[in-house]
Design brief:
The chain is an alpha/beta fold. Helix content is 18%, strand content 53%. It contains two helices and eight strands, in the order E-E-H-E-E-E-E-H-E-E. The chain has a four-stranded mixed beta sheet. Strands 3-4-6-5 form a four-stranded mixed beta sheet. A hairpin with a 2-residue loop joins strand 7 and strand 8. The N and C termini lie close together (9 Å). The relative contact order is 0.24.
């Protein structure tokens, strides 16, 4: 899974195998080592949840994008390439979230 963060946007791109894992398990995650100890990592994950809205959580070295189950199931079960949402963080600050299938990816 690829993570891209730029300005006020966050994008996840999933390989075909990761899309299948997400469809089956409801969660897919990757860990990026950032230092010499086991706690020096950044975990980023995509998670299916029983809510109506997208959410992004951050804490303890982990970013989790939470996608409503109805949207996640539709996305994984069709040829739809992406999901997107604009989250209102404060009155004047938004976060654009994009989740895409990276089906040409061979890693």
């Amino acid at each position: 899974m690829k993570l891209r963060i730029e300005d006020n946007s966050l994008r996840l791109r999933l390989s075909e195998a990761e899309v299948h894992q997400f469809a089956d398990a409801g969660r897919v995650a990757a860990v990026l080592p950032l230092g010499p100890t086991a706690t020096d990592t950044l975990t980023y994950a995509l998670e299916r949840v029983e809510t109506e809205h997208f959410r992004v959580t951050y804490g303890a070295g982990a970013i989790t994008v939470k996608v409503p189950a109805t949207l996640a199931n539709q996305w994984t079960g069709t040829d739809q390439n992406g999901l997107s949402a604009t989250l209102l963080l404060t009155e004047s600050q938004t976060l654009n979230v994009l989740i895409e299938k990276d089906l040409d990816c061979r890693h």
